[in-house]
Task: structure prediction
Amino acid sequence: MTGKQQKALFKSLPPMYKRGELTKEQQEQHEILSCIKMIDSCLIYGGDFWGKYWLDYIKTLGKTKVKKLYEEQQEDFKKSEIVHAGEDSEGGTYFWIKRRDEN
Result:
């Protein structure tokens, strides 16, 4: 899912703090966005998505959907640029993905 697609989906959903009021589909869409953000983070920083993070998502989204999301994000990541966003006061370095659909 490209950056513009993620932003459009996020804007279309009610906020997560209204979790009790969300439909099952809206809750799943929030979970998909959360999974995508974790995948992106692992791709940027070299984290092991399959070793640690994916287990929580397969409980809610299912293994097939998580694998598909990972493959889609990995493909989009190949067409994207990693941009240095800066450092915090403790020396931690931060990056963001400049996606092919963003200028």
Summary: The longest helix spans residues 24-45. Residues 35 and 56 are 9 Å apart (CA to CA). The two ends are 16 Å apart (CA to CA).
